[in-house]
């Protein structure tokens, strides 16, 4: 199956989940991520502000704030460029993709500041390579990123596919294995 087909199928499956299924999936995987050594050892976290059909990052952001971690979220630019900026819920705007992201007052931080990046996607293979929405933002960002990476996904987001040359694998996959 090619990436475009995987992208369509995974997106359809995600959008087919009920809100209670998504909440259970998100809460349980957040607890697993919070208990992981990769999270525990990180003083800072780069994560995304989820869309309604995605893994709900609000639980993760809330707990990371309580844990005293610095939280950074992505800001996208043209040509697939992306930076992370400090999370400020009072400075958010809707991007051209319909995603909440930092507004104009946010300043990018150096990659070395972020110790763990929580990487979104639509599908992953067992080696950690992912299929995202097709913009290549995370692959470009992660190409020279030295910190740790993790993704939270449901069992139905695991596919068998060959990565492209420019794909960057996620180092740790937390997979929700339960049937809904």
Structure description:
It is built from 5 helices and 10 strands. A 6-stranded mixed beta sheet has the order 3-2-1-6-9-10. The protein has a two-stranded antiparallel sheet with strand order 4-5. Helix 2 packs parallel to helix 4. The mean pLDDT is 93. The protein has 180 residues and is α/β, with parallel strands linked by helices.
Principal-axis shape:
globular
Q: How far is the N terminus from the C terminus? A: 25 Å
Q: Assess the beta-strand content as a share of residues.
A: 15-25%
Q: Total number of helical segments?
A: 5
Q: Class by helix and strand content?
A: alpha/beta
**What order do the SSEs take from the amino end to the carboxyl end, as H and E?**
HHHEHEEEEEEEHEE
Question: Which residues sit in consecutive blocks of at least 5 with pLDDT less than 50?
Answer: none
Identify the strand order in the major beta sheet.
3-2-1-6-9-10
Mean pLDDT: 93
Q: Using DSSP, what is the number of strands? A: 10
The radius of gyration is 15 Å
EC number: 6.3.3.2
Pfam family, one: 5-FTHF_cyc-lig
Cofactor: Mg(2+)
Binding site for ATP: 3-7, 130-138
Short summary of the structure?
This protein is α/β, with parallel strands linked by helices and 180 residues long. Helix content is 27%, strand content 22%. The radius of gyration is 15 Å and the shape is globular.
Spell out the key features of this protein.
single chain; 180 residues; alpha/beta; two-stranded antiparallel ribbon; 5 helices
Describe how the helices and strands are arranged.
Blueprint: H1 3-15, H2 19-35, H3 37-40, E1 44-46, H4 58-66, E2 70-76, E3 82-86, E4 92-94, E5 100-102, E6 116-118, E7 123-124, E8 130-131, H5 137-142, E9 148-154, E10 172-176
Parallel strand pairs: 1-2, 1-6, 6-9, 9-10
Antiparallel strand pairs: 2-3, 4-5, 7-8
Helix pairs in contact: 2-4
């Amino acid at each position: 199956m090619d990436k475009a087909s995987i992208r369509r199928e995974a997106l359809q499956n995600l959008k087919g989940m009920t809100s209670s299924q998504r909440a259970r999936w998100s809460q349980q995987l957040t607890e697993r991520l919070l208990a992981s050594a990769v999270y525990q050892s990180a003083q800072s976290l780069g994560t995304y502000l989820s869309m309604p059909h995605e893994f709900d990052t609000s639980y993760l952001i809330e707990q990371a704030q309580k844990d005293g971690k610095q939280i950074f979220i992505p800001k996208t630019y043209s040509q697939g460029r992306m930076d992370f900026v400090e999370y400020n819920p009072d400075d958010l705007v809707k991007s051209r993709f319909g995603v909440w992201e930092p507004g104009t007052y946010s300043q990018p931080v150096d990659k070395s500041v972020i110790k763990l990046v929580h990487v979104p996607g639509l599908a992953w293979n067992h080696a950690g390579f992912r299929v995202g929405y097709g913009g290549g933002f995370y692959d470009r960002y992660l190409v020279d990123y030295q910190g740790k990476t993790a993704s939270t996904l449901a069992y139905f987001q695991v596919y068998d596919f060959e990565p492209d040359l420019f794909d960057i694998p996620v180092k740790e996959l937390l997979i929700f294995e339960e049937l809904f």
